[in-house]
Amino acid sequence: MHHGQLITYNIMKKLIMKTKYIWLLAVLLGFTACNSDDDSTSTEEVILPPLTAGEVDFSNYVAVGASFTAGFSDGALFIATQNNSFPNILSMQFAMLGDGSFSQPLMNDNIGGLLFNGVQMPDGSFGPRLYFNGSGPAVLPATPTTEAYNVLGGTFNNVGVPGAKSFHLGIEGYGFANPYFGRMASNPMASMIGDAVSQNPTFFTLSEIGGNDVLSYATSGGTGVDQTGNYNPATYGNNDITDPVVFGVSFNASVDALIANGAKGVVTNVPYIASLPHFTTVPYNPIPLNAGTAAQLNAGYAQYNGGLTLALSYNLIDADEFAYRSIEFEASENNSMVLIDEDLTDLSALGIPSYRQSTSLDLFVLPLASLIPQGYGTQIPLADKWALTPEEQQNITIATDAYNATIEAVANANGLALVDFKGILIQASTVGVTSGDFILTTDLVTGGLVSLDGIHLTSRGYAVMANEMMSAIDATYGSNFVASGNLVDCGDYPTNYSPTLQ
């Protein structure tokens, strides 16, 4: 018997023993009867309105974008996540309105990765997907079976191409530079936007354009160049940040081409990618040291610290920079790492390298995690490619804000639905995003939103993205995916895949 039931029973027993309060017992019994009715398992059926399309014709849906559009996850593109890509999820909801089919350039397997004339790339790029091995992400021990040079031909509703930057969308012959597009292009000289427009879409999504314009800069630790002010993308390196004007011209041209025949659509803004777990999982102070090891390391950096003292005496650096650059380890579980920072005062003429120890303002790329036990960050100062300094993070933020201003202006000017992907990711990285019975965060492995590569979404994350798009479509075009109960249940989509899925 529950505590509350026991109290009620004792009260009723006393009342029964005192007949002068028999009328109160009747009242209590009346309340009990009412409570029993309230606790009944019978529920009134909720009748939802039928699904309606509002102002949109969903009969020919075409998705244009990069890796998120393609369904890239766990470091690779493979069939399972292609089938769970947000465009494919959307297409199944659109199909409930009696609209057309949705074709995708499927890979050959669930291994992921590409072969080039039967050979894997020696640098590990285009390799198999990752899986969780019980302690962390690991590369699937299998060989891809998808040949990059086997052209599928035709056109596909999903024109999502991993690696595509904003100015790549209109390049004819882009398939020669990007094998993901090469295997799906309608002809060797096709462009992404050309293949999309040739299908005369009635509805489109143009998603995550701008992400790759800063992503490779970030994943390379800022080794590229911020090309702001350079309007010629033909001169850009792969790891460079795209000039916002170049982005704006490219984005406007893509939207103009897609809406030329009256198509309606959804666009998304660009998240702050530095908040993804690829950059937030490795802490700035992960080095445990005992007193003896700390002393040995300090002895190794004694000459460097002495050089800083000399530079200070010559007024080549001030006291603040001297303190900022000095290296000192201690007996602690949380020592900072030594890194090379090109934004420090150049003292190379004195033979003094640009070393300092990491702070909480620095970010580190995920692959560094496996190298720290090998002496990276202690005996081996971290090269530029392993860290994003505050200055490099600022370059990314400024460019992202400029891209997003353009995206919002173009969406408003053309009456397009806009999904605030930036806001969603900020929420996920702080308090979490609620979807159905789940609270999704950006924590690696356990968060549920971001896949094992720390950048791309899980299938559950793509389901959340599809729901956000349907909500935006409702708000802009008068459809009722939300009100009719036709958002997808993100719990129906997995967060990771077993290595046996091949």
UniProtKB/TrEMBL annotation:
Signal peptide: 1-36
InterPro entries assigned to the protein according to its UniProt record, in alphabetical order: SGNH_hydro_sf
Coiled coil: none
Keyword Glycoprotein: no
UniProt GO MF annotations: hydrolase activity, acting on ester bonds
Keywords tagged on the record: Signal
Protein's UniProt name: Outer membrane protein
Lineage: Bacteria, Pseudomonadati, Bacteroidota, Flavobacteriia, Flavobacteriales
